């Protein structure tokens, strides 16, 4: 696990102190872990995965698989979310618009009536 922590620090081009700051643990904790004096606590691991959600937990704990859960190719493409266009949005036709009023910060307003 120590090697994998070093890999993460190196991959993200962090120093031990900047890595500690980024995950929100004392700098001495990182120092003690990197020298082998202490093992990472559950709190340390949870904070690491909160700061770096793309790290593969299975890889970190067991050393199996790839370092990242999402490949770089998938990251570049981004999520495949559907974007609804103006025409696709469901509009309830059961309620008719009676009046539209726009209030301005200076206390004035404008009222619009639909053309029927």
From TrEMBL:
Domain of life: Bacteria
HTH cro/C1-type domain span: 19-58
InterPro entries, sorted: Cro/C1-type_HTH, Lambda_DNA-bd_dom_sf
Gene Ontology MF term list: DNA binding
Pfam families: HTH_3 (PF01381)
Name of the protein: Transcriptional regulator
């Amino acid at each position: 696990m120590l090697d994998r922590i070093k890999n993460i620090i190196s991959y993200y081009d962090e120093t031990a102190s900047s890595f500690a700051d980024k995950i929100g643990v004392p700098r001495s904790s990182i120092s003690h872990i990197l020298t082998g004096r202490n093992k990472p606590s559950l709190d340390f691991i949870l904070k690491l995965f909160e700061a770096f959600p793309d790290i593969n937990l299975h890889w970190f704990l067991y050393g199996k698989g790839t370092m990242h859960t999402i490949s770089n190719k998938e990251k570049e493409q981004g999520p495949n979310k559907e974007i609804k266009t103006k025409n696709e949005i469901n509009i309830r036709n059961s309620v008719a618009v009676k009046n539209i009023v726009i209030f301005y910060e200076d206390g004035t307003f404008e009222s619009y009536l639909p053309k029927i």
